[in-house]
């Protein structure tokens, strides 16, 4: 079902010279509303027609059968009629709609606040655990630094001990070489003295007899040097 309205005078707040309002009804009881072929809500149609005097409960043209009901209505009924005729009903409905949205928003904010409080309660132990973890990390770092300092001190002491050992070894080697040189000189001097003793010993110039291999004494015995000789 469609209703076409001439809007060439701009009575309806829409930028169309002709407005077609359509309602499509389905077998399941549902409905679909359209304005110029675009799907919309029933509330959109009511707001569009609210300032034109057209529409359910919004017309200002009072029928002959409705005049008596308006005159005999209670104050609340007459107030509703006057608000509808003056175009106040549209704004009141918008206000009610805004209030409903505000109530829904407040309910959502309350749920968000509850969720925030719950998250804070859950985060408190996590915050304590994080603080403990940070403290443990600081202690571990201090312990690691202390161990590194101890290892560095041990390394310095070991290097100093190694240098001392190397210096002692060099000194021992030098003393050994000096002692070996002195010993060599002493042995050379000893050989020279032995040669001098043999040269100066009695009978050292006596020729040996024929058939003998060594000098002999007058009694036929080989002459012996009173000084010991080297083996």
TrEMBL record:
Keyword entries, A-Z: Coiled coil
Compositional bias (Basic and acidic residues): 183-199
InterPro entries: P-loop_NTPase (IPR027417)
Coiled-coil stretches: 88-122
Region (Disordered): 183-231
Entry-linked Gene3D superfamilies: P-loop containing nucleotide triphosphate hydrolases
Record's protein name: Chromosome segregation protein SMC
């Amino acid at each position: 079902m469609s209703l076409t309205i001439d809007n060439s005078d701009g009575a309806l707040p829409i930028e169309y010279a002709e407005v077609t309002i359509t309602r499509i009804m389905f077998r399941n009881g549902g409905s679909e509303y359209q304005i110029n072929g675009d799907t919309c809500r029933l509330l959109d149609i009511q707001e569009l027609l609210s300032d034109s005097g057209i529409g359910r409960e919004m017309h200002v043209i009072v029928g002959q059968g409705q005049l008596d009901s308006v005159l005999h209505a209670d104050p609340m009924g007459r107030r509703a009629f006057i608000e509808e005729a003056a175009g106040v009903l549209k704004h009141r409905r918008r206000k009610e709609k805004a209030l409903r949205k505000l109530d829904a928003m407040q309910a959502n904010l309350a749920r968000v606040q509850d969720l925030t409080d719950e998250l804070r309660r859950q985060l408190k132990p996590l915050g304590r655990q994080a603080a403990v973890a940070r403290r443990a990390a600081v202690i571990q770092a201090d312990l690691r630094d202390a161990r590194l300092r101890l290892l560095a001190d041990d390394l310095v002491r070991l290097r100093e001990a190694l240098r001392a050992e190397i210096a002692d070894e060099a000194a021992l080697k030098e003393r050994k070489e000096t002692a070996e040189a002195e010993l060599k000189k002493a042995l050379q001097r000893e050989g020279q003295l032995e040669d001098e003793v043999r040269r100066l010993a009695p009978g050292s110039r006596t020729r040996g007899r024929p058939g003998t291999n060594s000098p002999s004494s007058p009694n036929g015995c080989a002459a012996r040097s009173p000084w010991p000789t080297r083996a």
